[in-house]
Structure formats: structure tokens, C-alpha cells
Design a protein that fits this description.
235 residues; mainly alpha; globular
Length: 235
């Protein structure tokens, strides 16, 4: 992942947050959508919108650092040729968003762009788990992705999920990187080192972890709903 591209993404996020502070468009959206969130998502009664806003902002803020971490770690593992396609799609979506987002506030647009990026990284993580039995990233972003999916709304969120699936098809002929000696050596080293310091490689997720676990706690008392589906929709 090019350093200049990451700088552009961070600047885009900074400008969008500055605009939101002046307009409050995202807060208005969250306030409107709050009553429609799935019942399995529990938020504090006194400051539900603030908690949801914090989640969205951290979700967006974490994208460039997470992209950087994925690029660095997968290069170390020798599978950069596989993940470059995913990272390139996420980067381009941030830098050149599609026309259908133009009628939304900038931070609301970034919520959609961040969703695509996190879903792509989720798929990279899943492929990593499938190949070596352990995760690339130290936490499960599924809950956060589900909440953002609902806030984006359908059918657009489903279109983003479809874009993720299409990107997987582009990478089928690159999966031989998982058979390389370099990747197998990396996996052996990771397993030997254990998971004690794995979060050190992912400082971008430290705050996201706290938010996700907190929201998971709200969901624990919900009825035994069906688990979330892989494409980001709650049943």
C-alpha cells in the first residue's frame, strides 16, 4: 500500500470529520436510523446516538491504518500478490468514490467506503484462517460490519457485498501463494510465537476492539436470534 495513497485517505477522513462537526449530517442520520436497528444490537439508553457515532467514527478512522497493517503483514507472509487486489479496490473506492454516493454527506459516504474496505479485509482474514487455521487480524469485525451494513441500508449495502464477492473471483488464480515455502515458514513462526503480542501489529484495532466488545455485551441479553449471515445482513 503506497504511503501517498494512505495520506490521501487520511486527509479525506479528516476533512469529512471537520465538515460533520459543522453540519451534523451523520448525527441526524444515526438519530433517524436508531429505532430501526436490529433488536440484537443493544446500545446504552442514555447516549445511544453518541455510542453509535463513536463506533462509526472509529470504524472509518481505522481504515487507513488497517490497510497499512494488512499490506505490511501479508508482504511479510509472502502473500502480498494475493491481497494487493483487495487493498487496491479499497483504496480506489476511498479516493474515487462512485457517483451514486454524491448525494450523501461526505462522512456518510465514508461510512460506505469504510464498509467495503472492512469487508474486503474480513475476506482476507477468512482466507488466512482457511489456509493456516489462525486469523491474520486479532479480532472479529463481524458485529461492527453488521451494524454499518444496517446504517448504510439496502439495496446499496448488498451491492457493496456483491463487489466484495466479485473481488474474490479476481483472486482465485492467485491462491497458489498460500502454498509457497515463504508463507508456510511465516505461519510456523506465528504459531511458535503464539498470540500474546499479536495486537501489537494492529494498533488500528485497539479502539475498535473495545467498541465491538461493548456492543457485543449489549447483544448478549437479546433473544436467541439467528446469527448474522456472512454477507452482512441480520436475519
Amino acid at each position: 500500500m503506497d504511503t501517498d495513497d494512505l495520506t490521501v485517505i487520511r486527509n479525506v477522513i479528516h476533512r469529512a470529520k471537520k465538515s460533520e462537526a459543522e453540519t451534523g449530517h451523520l448525527v441526524t442520520l444515526l438519530t433517524k436510523e436508531l429505532p430501526h436497528l436490529h433488536r440484537a444490537i443493544r446500545l446504552p439508553e442514555n447516549n445511544a446516538v453518541d455510542a453509535l457515532l463513536k463506533l462509526v467514527l472509529n470504524y472509518i478512522d481505522s481504515v487507513p491504518n488497517c490497510l497499512e497493517a494488512v499490506a505490511r503483514i501479508t508482504d511479510e507472509a509472502g502473500i502480498g500478490a494475493y491481497t494487493d487486489v483487495f487493498l487496491g479496490i479499497a483504496r480506489d473506492y476511498f479516493i474515487q468514490p462512485p457517483a451514486q454516493l454524491e448525494d450523501r454527506s461526505r462522512l456518510t459516504m465514508l461510512m460506505s467506503e469504510a464498509y467495503l474496505a472492512h469487508r474486503l479485509m474480513e475476506e482476507i482474514n477468512d482466507r488466512f484462517i482457511g489456509r493456516c487455521g489462525m486469523p491474520l487480524a486479532p479480532i472479529d469485525m463481524t458485529l461492527s460490519n453488521l451494524i454499518i451494513h444496517q446504517l448504510i441500508g439496502e439495496p446499496f449495502a448488498n451491492e457493496l457485498d456483491m463487489a466484495v464477492q466479485l473481488s474474490l473471483e479476481l483472486c482465485i488464480d492467485r491462491e497458489d501463494v498460500f502454498e509457497s515455502s515463504r508463507f508456510k515458514d511465516y505461519v510456523a513462526q506465528r504459531k511458535q510465537a503464539g498470540s500474546a503480542n499479536v495486537l501489537d501489529d494492529w494498533p488500528c484495532l485497539a479502539e475498535e476492539m473495545a467498541i465491538s466488545l461493548q456492543l457485543s455485551g449489549y447483544a448478549e441479553d437479546a433473544d436467541n436470534d439467528l446469527p448474522p449471515s456472512k454477507n452482512g445482513a441480520l436475519h
